[in-house]
Design goal:
- By secondary structure, the chain is an alpha+beta fold.
- The chain has five domains: 67 residues, Alpha-Beta Plaits (2-Layer Sandwich); 241 residues, no CATH class; 90 residues, Calcium-transporting ATPase, cytoplasmic transduction domain A (Distorted Sandwich); 159 residues, Rossmann fold (3-Layer(aba) Sandwich), CATH 3.40.50.1000; 134 residues, Calcium-transporting ATPase, cytoplasmic domain N, CATH 3.40.1110.10.
- The chain has 25 helices and 26 strands.
- α1 packs across α11, α4 runs parallel beside α7 and α5 packs across α6.
- The chain starts with 10 loop residues before the first strand and ends with a helix.
- One of its GO terms (cellular component) is endomembrane system.
- It is a multi-pass membrane protein.
Amino acid sequence: MTTSKLTHSEFFTLDIGGMTCASCLNRVEKALSSIPGVEAATVNLATEQARIRIKPGTASLEDIINAVEKTGYSAKESTPQGNASRDVAKSFWAADGLARVVLGFMLSTPLFLPMVLMPFGVDWSLSGWWQLALATPVQFILGWRFYVAGYKSLMAGAGNMDLLVALGTSAAYGLSLYLLLNSSHAHELYFEGSAVIICMVLLGKWLEARAKQQTSEAIRALQKLWPEHAKVIDRQLTELGSSSIRPDQYRDLPLDQVLPGDRVWVLPGERIPVDGTILSGTSHVDESLLTGESTPVKKSVDAKVIGGSLNGEGALVVSAVAVGVESVLSQIIRLVEDAQTQKAPIQKLVDQVSAIFVPAVIVLALITGLGNWLYLDSISIAILRAVSVLVIACPCALGLATPAAIMAGTGVAARFGILIKDPQVLEQAHRLDIVAFDKTGTLTIGKPRLLQLLAFDHVKVSADEILATAAGLQLGSEHPLARALIDFAKDQHVLPISTSASTALPGIGIEGIPMTGAFAGHTVRLQSVSSLENSSILPAVLKKAQDFFDQGHTVSVLMDASSSQDITVSSNLTPIAILAFGDELKPHAKQAITALHALSIRTVMISGDNLAAAQTVAQSIGIDDVFAQIMPGNKANIIQQLQTSSLFSSASSNSASGKKHYVAMVGDGVNDAPALAMADVGMAMSTGTDVAMQAAGITLMRGDPSLVADAIDISKRTWNKIRQNLFWAFAFNTIGIPMAAFGYLSPMLAGSAMALSSFFVLSNALLLKRWRPSQLSTQ
């Protein structure tokens, strides 16, 4: 552990030990937030982690850890693999292990057994001194942890679950000891109450630990995908045949020693250790735990592979591109961890309640004790009812309700290729009534082909020279249409003409000056039809391209722009040719729209294509509304208008005038990022750009549009679990405290109910693990 000033990292994670309830969480969070230089701090009870952002150079790690320890909890810097890599369910003999639970019940059984036998007419009980002998080790050995933690919380000026348990059981034990020393009637003793309470709390904590372990299984499953070593081939070798490598030609290196550019040999049945590109070999690769794709994907030379995926039947040589924290697997783990440690907005209410919960419970217990003493004139009954109030009110379930559901929901979603990185998405998703799609790369495959190049009648230049000129403009571009144009030129054995002064025109296209050919010295421009919206030549272009639009194809126009001085003015442009591109719809595009309609969600497509082309695609898959010829910068404006209903007529059944709509945007490109950020829920295809994924709250790892409905479904289910858990957590206390105060719950039953409430909340959250995407659930 380093204690030096944090001058390079503004964000880090601590593992927190000793938290037991929502009050603990609030106290740690308050202590962290009060440290000078801490900009933000959030603590998660389910993961037992704190995430802190600080100003560089203002606080040391030692300062942060000391602040946590002063509140009565332990803290240490988290490992790079995160808290989920730890064994959350303690070992059998550990402090929170099953051994203490078993031992506690062995000692307590003779104490409460007479109560069980009494209804059957069996009048038997231990002597008071035997009861004292059995209850004392339970109270002060097995229950010592409650005294220690309760004392620390009291010294920190707050209370927690441990303080309530310590006060309640001590009161019951003390009353029993007083009666034993002053009376010979063993049946008036309450040692069984204090002992069973401690046993039930220990059992509840053990069950919580077991359930927490299951909620974080998704991250641990991802972490287990990392192989420990990689077979790195000597860089001096020129022979890369995947089946001809000898043992003396590679080194078995630890994964953290593998660098980008290394060539890695992957045998059949091994996990691929790095993100990279296949240099040699052919195989099927199982990426199911990374993308949710259920069937292995065929991979050959030049195909990209993801580290952690399972190689099939063929040996591969892979050139490493990304290793360690830069890999896709690391990014997935980081996104899931971030989602599981952040707080949903509804948690703010829970935090406000938890901050005053324990002091309020202690006051209620005092009022209960005094009220029953005055009314019943019995100090023993008054103390027992006060003890019941203290025990039933432990706020464990309240602290676990939200994070447990978030962990389970985001974990199972990640397993099937849906990465929910922002818990706020969970609160918004159940309200969604409109989903807007980008077209290219989202509903379509995103790998268009040049179908036809059609010159205008006045142009007396060969088609090959026009193709060479257009392809020359796109050299070096990674845009899908650019790749399609260059690939077509290559297939036609046409050499692109180099250009000078190439300039990308955002929202329009690209222009440059060909070095040779018929257009040498001219400024030529390849641009979208939508960018000609106010041009006088638009009618001629539309007439020439109408047949292509009717078939749903994308059309670009090659222009001679030598006479134009302003890229925003199209009046001086001379059209040279139109280029028609075709892009296939994704296999499940229509299924995706049908699934959204089944959820009563309106679908919209926002495209830069001509209206006729966009409508053709929309009609083929059943999209409700189309917004075409939309410049990239205007997509966010469309989203904003969809949210305020101003784009729909008042006659629309889904869109009453003035109604606030909740809109999701689905896209994959840089130009989609503003719209993704503007939408209530942004969903990015992982097949797109990093910018789009950073702007979105949900990333769809397979790039499959049918995952959109699945993402909404699991988000809704997770949100419902949060609400159910909070309802039951509050219900247990709302119903239990009055029952305990009026004597309808004995201390033993109160302890059982308290443990049951936490277990119920966690078990309810774990039901999310049974969720399956629609495609799998129907198979």
